[in-house]
C-alpha cells in the first residue's frame, strides 16, 4: 500500500529519474536540488508540482559546461527521430562497408562545439546522419541501430516515474558488488514462490546487504492483516528500498525492525526470568511448611532491620544537632526523594524506539511465524538454527546465498533433522531476448548467476 493519494511530485518523496536505460533513485528535498546523471549535472526543482510520469527536456545552461535545467515537454517535443528517416534508401548488406574511422565528416571538436553552443540533440543527430558517408548504404536494421545509439548518447529527455519493486531491483542489481549484493528480479520472484507467500501471514526475515529490497517486496505484497519481522545482523538497518516505496504509515506499522543481537539478548533474558519464576513457584508449592518458617524468618529480619534503622536514626539526629550543614544536606536529600516519588507518569522516561520494536518482535515470535527468509552476507547456519524454532509446522523456509557452498553445509545439516522435508537447492538462469519481426536477438552479455536458493518445509516430528 503505497502513497498514491497525490499524483503530484512533492518534496520528501522518492522518485526515479530515467534517461533511456539509465535510472537513478532520488529523494526530493529543498536542500538537494541537483542530481548527477552520468557526467551531467541537472537541476530538478522544476519537477515539483508536476504529475508523476511527466517527461522533461534538458536545457543547457549558458556559460556552464554540462549543466542543465528541466522544462516540461509536450507531445511535439517527443517525436522520434528514427521515424523521420524511414523513407531513406538503404543497402542490402554491410559487406562493402569498411570501418576505418573516416566515414564521419564531422570531427569530435566540431561536435563538442555544437553541444557547448546549446544545439538541440535532435539537430546534432541530423547533422551526424547527413555527414556520414556510409549511412545510405547500410541495411535498414543497421540504420536503426545507428540512430538508437546516437539517441542514447545525445538523448535530451528525462522522465520522472514512481518507484516499483521491478525498478528498484534493477537499480540495486546494477550497482557494484562492494556497495550492494544485487539480487536479480527473477531470483526475487523465485524466492516469493518458494516461500508460498500469503498476504495475511506473519513472516520472519533476516536481511543484510541487499538495501532492503527483500523486505520491500514482502511488505508490498502484505494485506492489512499481515506482519513482517525484519531482523538485521549488522548495526545499521538497511531499509533504503522500503523507504523508496513511499509506503503509508499504516503499512509501515506492519513492519518491525530489530537487530539480531538485541533480539537474542532479550530472548535469553526472558528465558532466564521464566526459569526463575517457575522454580520459585515450585518451591512454594512443594514445601508449604518451610514457607511458613521462611515467612517467620523474614518477619524477624524485618523487625531487626527496623530496630537498626531506629538506632541509626537516633545517632544521626545527635550528629545533625551538632552540625547544621549536614542537616541541610539531609533535608535536601529527603526533599529530592519525595519529589521523585511524586512525579507523574507523564514525566517518566520513554523507552527508545528500538527497545519497543524489540519487545514487539518477541511478542510476535512467541506465537510463531508462517515462514522464514534468510538473505544476508553472513554464514546462514547459525542464524537458521537460532530462528528455526519460531516457525509453525507445515510452513516453508527459504535461504538465499550468493554462493553455493554455505547452502550445501546447511543442506547436509538440515537433512539429518526429522522435522524438515522437501529440501532442495535451486539456481535460476535468466537471459532477455529482443523479439523483432522475423528475427530475435538474445542478449550476449548477461550475468551467469544471481545466487542460489535453499528451500524446504518444517513439519511435526513423531
Written overview of the protein:
Its main location: nucleus. One of its GO terms (biological process) is tRNA methylation. Belongs to the TRM6/GCD10 family. With 462 residues, the protein is α/β, with parallel strands linked by helices. The protein has a domain of 207 residues: Vaccinia Virus protein VP39 (Rossmann fold, 3-Layer(aba) Sandwich), CATH 3.40.50. Helices cover 40% and strands 19% of the residues. The strands form three sheets. The chain has a seven-stranded mixed beta sheet, with helices on one face. It is elongated and about 80 Å long. The two termini are 42 Å apart.
Topology summary:
Layout: E1 14-19, E2 22-27, E3 34-37, E4 40-43, E5 55-60, E6 67-72, H1 108-116, H2 121-130, H3 140-154, E7 157-161, H4 165-173, H5 185-195, E8 202-207, H6 213-221, E9 227-232, H7 240-244, H8 249-252, E10 255-259, H9 260-286, H10 288-322, H11 324-341, H12 353-366, E11 371-375, H13 380-387, E12 395-401, H14 405-415, E13 420-427, E14 433-436, E15 439-442, E16 452-458
Parallel strand pairs: 4-6, 8-9, 8-11, 9-10, 11-12
Antiparallel strand pairs: 1-2, 1-7, 3-4, 5-6, 5-7, 12-16, 13-16, 14-15
Helix pairs in contact: 2-3, 4-6, 9-12, 10-11
Amino acid at each position: 500500500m503505497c502513497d498514491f493519494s497525490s499524483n503530484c511530485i512533492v518534496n520528501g518523496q522518492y522518485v526515479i529519474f530515467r534517461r533511456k536505460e539509465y535510472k537513478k533513485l532520488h529523494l526530493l528535498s529543498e536542500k538537494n536540488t541537483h542530481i548527477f546523471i552520468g557526467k551531467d549535472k541537472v537541476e530538478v526543482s522544476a519537477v515539483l508540482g508536476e504529475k508523476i510520469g511527466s517527461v522533461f527536456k534538458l536545457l543547457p545552461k549558458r556559460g556552464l559546461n554540462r549543466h542543465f535545467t528541466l522544462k516540461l515537454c509536450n507531445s511535439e517535443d517527443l517525436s522520434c527521430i528514427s521515424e523521420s528517416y524511414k523513407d531513406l534508401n538503404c543497402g542490402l548488406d554491410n559487406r562493402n562497408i569498411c570501418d576505418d574511422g573516416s566515414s564521419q565528416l564531422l570531427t569530435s571538436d566540431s561536435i563538442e562545439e555544437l553541444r557547448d553552443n546549446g544545439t538541440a540533440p535532435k539537430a546534432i543527430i541530423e547533422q551526424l546522419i547527413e555527414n556520414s558517408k556510409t549511412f545510405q548504404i547500410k541495411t535498414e536494421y543497421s540504420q536503426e541501430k545507428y540512430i538508437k545509439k546516437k539517441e542514447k548518447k545525445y538523448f535530451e529527455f528525462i522522465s520522472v516515474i514512481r518507484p516499483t519493486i521491478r525498478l528498484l531491483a534493477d537499480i540495486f542489481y546494477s550497482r557494484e558488488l562492494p556497495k550492494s549484493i544485487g539480487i536479480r528480479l527473477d531470483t526475487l520472484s523465485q524466492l516469493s514462490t518458494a516461500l508460498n507467500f500469503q498476504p495475511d501471514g506473519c513472516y520472519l526475515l533476516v536481511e543484510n546487504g541487499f538495501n532492503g529490497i527483500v523486505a520491500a517486496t514482502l511488505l508490498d505484497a502484505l494485506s492489512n492483516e499481515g506482519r513482517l519481522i525484519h531482523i538485521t545482523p549488522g548495526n545499521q538497518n538497511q531499509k533504503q528500498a522500503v523507504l523508496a516505496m513511499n509506503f503509508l504509515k499504516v503499512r509501515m506499522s506492519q513492519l518491525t525492525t530489530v537487530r539480531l543481537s538485541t533480539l537474542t539478548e532479550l530472548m535469553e533474558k526472558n528465558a532466564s526470568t521464566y526459569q526463575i519464576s517457575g522454580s520459585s513457584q515450585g518451591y512454594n508449592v512443594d514445601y508449604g511448611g518451610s514457607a511458613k518458617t521462611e515467612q517467620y524468618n523474614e518477619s524477624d529480619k524485618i523487625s531487626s532491620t527496623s530496630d537498626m534503622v531506629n538506632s541509626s536514626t537516633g545517632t544521626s539526629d545527635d550528629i545533625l544537632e551538632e552540625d547544621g550543614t549536614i542537616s541541610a544536606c539531609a533535608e535536601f536529600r529527603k526533599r529530592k526523594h519525595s519529589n521523585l516519588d511524586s512525579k507523574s507518569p507523564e514525566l517518566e522516561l520513554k523507552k527508545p524506539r528500538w527497545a519497543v520494536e524489540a519487545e514487539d518482535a518477541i511478542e510476535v515470535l512467541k506465537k510463531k511465524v508462517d515462514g522464514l527468509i534468510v538473505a544476508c552476507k553472513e554464514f546462514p547456519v547459525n542464524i537458521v538454527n537460532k530462528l528455526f524454532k519460531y516457525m509453525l509446522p507445515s510452513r516453508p523456509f527459504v535461504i538465499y546465498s550468493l554462493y553455493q557452498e554455505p547452502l550445501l553445509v546447511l543442506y547436509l545439516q538440515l537433512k539429518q533433522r526429522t522435522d524438515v522435508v522437501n529440501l532442495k537447492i535451486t539456481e535460476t538462469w535468466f537471459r532477455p531476448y529482443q523479439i523483432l519481426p522475423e528475427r530475435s536477438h538474445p542478449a550476449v552479455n548477461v550475468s551467469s548467476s544471481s545466487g542460489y536458493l535453499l528451500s524446504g518445509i518444517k513439519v511435526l516430528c513423531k
